[in-house]
């Protein structure tokens, strides 16, 4: 999950791993709306933002219109333990319970959740006491469903004014097939992030795009960032495939194990015969790594293992220059052309290992291919290679 | 391809059944046990090794549609063990109806339509390997009680669109009269609206609008793909 440094008072990070990796932090007072297709859940973003800001000791106001306040509390605490004094900084505005006639222990209750003006008046009171809070509004479409888009539009200027009074606002809006237009309402926000599904017969993945971020002069290029919301890990940018290749005995399996939270290797007597797989979540990124077998006789499976990769890490045994030719051969066979490539000069823990710059010279690589030293016995060095790779993948998705 | 419905009254009305990708809204007065129709529809499919998804929107005193399914299908436990039947319920219903958790997608409340839509999608994905899937929503009334008609109509519009895209078949059960003004909005997107009643003790079915046979094949239409193309046209871009 995202860890945030307390606000500098000029920029307010979202507190969501995936967003903070991709989007520049908005300035204080900004409001951002996440617009999701029906069935794509964005509440996970809001809950992670709540958890991160509470963890950092900041006040959080959470407006819940679609689920019970207890559910919100439970889902926030499920993201990780919070000391009581920090959890107490969560201020819940309940626009749900009275609709069902349910008991509520929220800090503020909207008696008539179908009344937009009543909800805004409640928020105005809350803003008087908690202006430094990060406001999470879940959701604007819930309010539109309840009161009607016409009523929401009629009161939108007043709503906008109260949102501006908080330190920052992250709101959710489900783009149901409304009969009336609603896009004009989104213009009031400083940023718009769209969440949608990748679909075949059914939805099999979710992505977000930064449609607009008024505080980022370069803008964003509309790249689709896959993301995953995982229990206990929050929402992270998802990189479905990074290929780890290299000659036999270059240390691929050890590398995959060193950087992964979970890893498995299909091997026979210590030699990979099918693939290595590892899954890792770090710094707002969650990624799957696939290691290819190094022996020539397994080359027919390379295309399958390496297909649709977003980046390639080539492991070379820095103590064995005679294997470098095979590494270049694999680079070609894994169709790494055009993808971010990093050569990891492995086994740097050994005295006779060639340093990265010597490996670079020996390999005679194209410009733009980084060579980094690492050792499978020192996981931090391997993580450094992975972090550089994820940075390279995300760099390619940003303008400039 | 049309799928048999398992209930004689519906078979009589719709001939070969519902086309893949079609969704039917089945309305009936309170005294009619429409769960019987939903259970027969699911059971018929499970017997043909189709996947089944039951969206149970309330905690029914009588055990709900799963109880009916257990009554008519002696192989229910096998279907569940094989993972071909999945449930979408509220957490309360999950506990009250003793539905196996590993077969369920639970939502905190049916009022959270976005979560409900996502849960149905997860259930669809879990059954991707089965190919054909039958979905029953039992029942629409709980959704209407939870919020307003317009919101439910939008949820249905998206649901029906996803059924069409995934090439599934769906029945949505509702205790509504054909004269109910809510029907005008709720019916949008459905391929066929079936009205159930009982005559001389026998369950009967007829179309709310006899002119509307889109998505269904009457005996006279059997062998023709006309209904299917109408179905596709009606659902061109539900989202």
Keyphrases for this structure?
heterodimer, A: alpha/beta, 31% helix, 28% strand, B: 239 residues, alpha/beta, three-stranded antiparallel beta sheet, 10 helices, 40% helix, globular, disordered C terminus
Ends distance of chain B: 24 Å
Contiguous runs where pLDDT drops below 50 for at least 5 residues of chain A: none
Described by the principal axes of the CA atoms, the overall outline of chain A is: elongated
Rg of chain A to the nearest angstrom?
A: 24 Å
Total number of β-strand segments of chain A?
16
Poorly predicted ranges of chain B: 214-239
Describe the sheet with the most strands of chain A: 16 strands, mixed
The overall average pLDDT of chain B, rounded, is 82
Oligomer: heterodimer
From the N-terminal CA to the C-terminal CA of chain A, the straight-line distance is: 27 Å
Bulk shape of chain B: globular
Which structural class do the helices and strands of chain B define?
alpha/beta
The proportion of residues in beta strands of chain B is 15-25%
Our estimate of the beta-strand percent of chain A is 25-35%
Give the neighbour order of strands across the main sheet of chain B. 6-5-4-7-8-3-9-10
Number of helices of chain B: 10
Q: Report helical residue fraction of chain A.
A: 25-40%
Name the largest protein-protein interface in this structure. Answer: A-B, 28 and 29 residues
Give the fraction of residues assigned to helices of chain B.
25-40%
Class derived from helix and strand content of chain A: alpha/beta
Mean pLDDT of chain A: 88
């Amino acid at each position: 999950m995202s860890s945030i440094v307390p606000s500098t008072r000029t920029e307010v990070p979202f507190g969501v791993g995936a967003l903070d990796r991709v989007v520049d932090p908005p300035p204080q007072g900004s409001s951002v709306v996440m617009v999701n297709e029906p069935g794509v859940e964005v509440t996970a973003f809001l809950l992670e933002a709540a958890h991160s800001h509470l963890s950092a000791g900041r006040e959080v106001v959470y407006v819940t219109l679609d689920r019970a306040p207890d559910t919100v509390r439970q889902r926030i605490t499920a993201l990780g333990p919070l000391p009581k004094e920090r959890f107490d900084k969560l201020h819940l505005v309940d626009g749900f319970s009275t609709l069902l006639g349910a008991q509520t222990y929220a800090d503020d209750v909207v008696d008539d959740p179908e009344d937009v003006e009543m909800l805004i008046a409640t928020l105005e009171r809350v803003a008087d006491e908690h202006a430094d809070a990060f406001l999470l509004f879940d959701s604007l479409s819930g309010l539109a469903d309840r009161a009607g888009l016409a009523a929401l539009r009629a009161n939108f200027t007043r709503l906008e004014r109260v949102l501006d009074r908080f330190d920052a606002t992250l709101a959710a809006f489900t783009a149901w097939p409304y009969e009336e237009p609603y896009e004009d309402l989104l213009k009031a926000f400083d940023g718009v992030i769209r969440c949608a599904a990748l679909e075949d017969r059914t939805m099999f993945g979710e992505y977000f795009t930064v449609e607009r971020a008024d505080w980022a002069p370069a803008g964003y290029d509309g790249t689709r960032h896959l993301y995953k919301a995982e229990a206990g890990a929050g929402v992270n940018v998802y990189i479905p495939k990074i290929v780890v290749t290299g000659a036999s005995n270059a240390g691929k399996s050890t590398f995959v194990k060193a950087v992964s939270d979970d890893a498995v290797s299909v091997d026979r007597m210590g030699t990979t015969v099918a693939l290595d797989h590892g899954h890792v979540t770090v710094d707002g990124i969650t990624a799957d790594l696939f290691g290819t077998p190094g022996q020539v006789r397994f080359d027919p499976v390379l295309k399958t293992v390496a297909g649709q990769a977003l980046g390639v890490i080539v492991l070379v045994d820095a103590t064995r220059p005679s294997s470098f030719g095979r590494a270049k051969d694999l680079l070609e066979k894994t169709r790494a052309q055009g993808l971010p490539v990093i050569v990891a000069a492995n086994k740097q823990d050994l005295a006779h290992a060639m340093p990265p710059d010597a490996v670079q010279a020996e390999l005679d690589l194209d410009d733009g291919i980084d060579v980094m030293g690492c050792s499978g016995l020192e996981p931090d060095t391997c993580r450094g290679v992975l972090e550089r790779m994820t940075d390279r993948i995300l760099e390619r998705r940003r303008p400039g | 391809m049309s799928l048999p419905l398992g209930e004689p009254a519906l078979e009589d009305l719709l001939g070969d059944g519902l086309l893949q990708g079609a969704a039917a809204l089945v309305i009936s007065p309170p005294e009619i046990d429409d769960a019987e129709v939903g259970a027969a529809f699911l059971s018929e499919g499970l017997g043909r090794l189709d996947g089944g998804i039951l969206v149970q929107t309330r905690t029914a005193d009588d055990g709900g549609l799963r109880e009916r399914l257990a009554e008519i299908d002696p192989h229910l436990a096998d279907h569940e063990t094989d993972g071909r039947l999945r449930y979408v319920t509220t957490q309360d219903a999950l506990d009250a109806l003793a539905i196996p958790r590993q077969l369920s997608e639970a939502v905190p409340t049916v009022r959270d339509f976005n979560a409900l839509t996502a849960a149905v999608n997860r259930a669809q994905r879990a059954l991707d390997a089965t190919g054909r899937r039958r979905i029953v929503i039992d029942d629409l009334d709980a959704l209407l009680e939870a919020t307003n008609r317009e919101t439910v109509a939008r949820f249905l519009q998206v649901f029906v669109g996803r059924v069409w895209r995934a090439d599934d078949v769906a029945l949505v059960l509702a205790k509504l009269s054909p004269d109910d003004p809510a029907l005008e909005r709720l019916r949008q997107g459905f391929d066929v609206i079936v009205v159930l009643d009982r005559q001389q003790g026998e369950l009967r079915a007829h179309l709310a609008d006899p002119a509307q046979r889109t998505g269904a094949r009457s005996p006279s239409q059997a062998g023709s793909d006309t209904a299917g193309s109408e179905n596709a046209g009606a659902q061109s871009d539900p989202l």
